[in-house]
Amino acid sequence: MSRKPLISGNWKMNLNHFEAIQVTQKLAYLVGKDELEHADVSLHPPFTDIRSVQTVIDSDKLGYALGAQHCHWEDKGAFTGEVSPVFLAKLGVQYVICGHSERRELFGETDEMVAKKVAAIQQHGMTPIMCVGETLAEREAGDTEAKVLGQVRAGLAGRTSEQVGRMVIAYEPIWAIGTGRTATAEDAQQLCAAIRSCVAELSGAEAADTLRVQYGGSVKAGTIAELIAQPDVDGALVGGASLDADEFARICKLGV
Ligand code: PGA
C-alpha cells in the first residue's frame, strides 16, 4: 500500500488574517495543483484566519486542505474561549491537530482529553492529526518508546480499526520542535515504524497500513527529501518553516 504523503503547515500563533491570505496566495503561485499530485498539503492557520484562508482556497479552487490547530470535544456549550468541532466542519476544515506538545505542556491537555478530541473530530467527518512525542529528558533516560507508544494507546482508546486507519499520527520529539535540532531520518523512521507496529497490534494490520504517520520538529526544505524517503514516514508537520511561502513550497514539493 502506498500512502500519499501529507505535508501540514502549522502556523501556530503567527500571521494575522491579512498575512495568512498573502502566504496562501504566494504558496498557490509557487505550488500549483499539478504539483500537489504527489502530496496532500494542509494549512493550519489560527482560528481568526480560517475563514479568510478558506475563502482564498475556495475562490481560487486551490488544491490545499484547510486545517485547524485545536478544538474542543463538545459540540457546544459553556466553554468560554473554546471552538467546537462542529464549527470547524462547517467551515470546510478537513484536518485538525490535537494533542500538540505545546497544548499538552502549556495548556494542560491530558491523554484523556486528546482521546475525546480525536473522537469528536472524527465524529464530525474530519481527520485528526494526533501529536505524540518525548522530551529530551525522556529520550536520554531511554524512555522514548514507552512515552510515545503510551500516548498512541491512550489516544486511540475506543476507536474502531476503520477509524484508526483514517487517522494521522504526528511523531514530534519535543526537543526538536522550534529548536533547529531534527531527529535523524533513521530516528524518525524507527519511531514512526514503532508507532505503526503498535497500531497494528491495537487495531490490526489494515489500519496500520492505511494510517499516515508524519514526522515533525524543525523540518526544512533541506531535510524533507531524506525524511520522506523513509518507508514509515508519510509526511511532515511543519511549524516555523511553513510561515515562509518559499521554504514551505519547497517542502510541499518534497525538497525537489
Ligand atoms: P517546528 O514545529 O517545525 O517549528 O519545529 C513543528 C510543530 O510544532 O508542529
Please describe what this structure looks like.
By secondary structure, the chain is α/β, with parallel strands linked by helices. The protein has a single domain, classed as Alpha-Beta Barrel (TIM Barrel), CATH 3.20.20. The protein contains twelve helices and eight strands. Strand 3, helix 3 and strand 4 (95-98) form a beta-alpha-beta unit. The structure holds 2-phosphoglycolic acid. The site of 2-phosphoglycolic acid has 13 residues, from strand 8.
Keywords:
256 residues, alpha/beta, TIM Barrel, eight-stranded parallel barrel, 12 helices, 8 strands, globular, binds 2-phosphoglycolic acid
CATH superfamily: Aldolase class I
Radius of gyration, taken over Cα atoms and rounded to an integer in Å: 17 Å
| Stretches with pLDDT under 50, minimum 5 residues | none
Classify the beta-strand content into a percent band.
Answer: 5-15%
Reading off the top of the CATH hierarchy, the class is best stated as Alpha Beta
How many strands appear in the DSSP assignment? 8
If you average the pLDDT, what whole number results? 96
Which CATH architecture would you pick?
A: Alpha-Beta Barrel
User: Biggest sheet, in brief?
Assistant: 8 strands, parallel, barrel
**How many H/I helical runs?**
12
Bound molecule kinds, no repeats: 2-phosphoglycolic acid
Shape: globular
Q: What number of structural domains do the residues give?
A: 1
Helical amount among residues, as a percent range? Answer: 40-55%
Structural class: alpha/beta
Give the SSE order as H and E letters.
Answer: EHEHEHEHHEHHHEHHEHEH
CATH topology: TIM Barrel
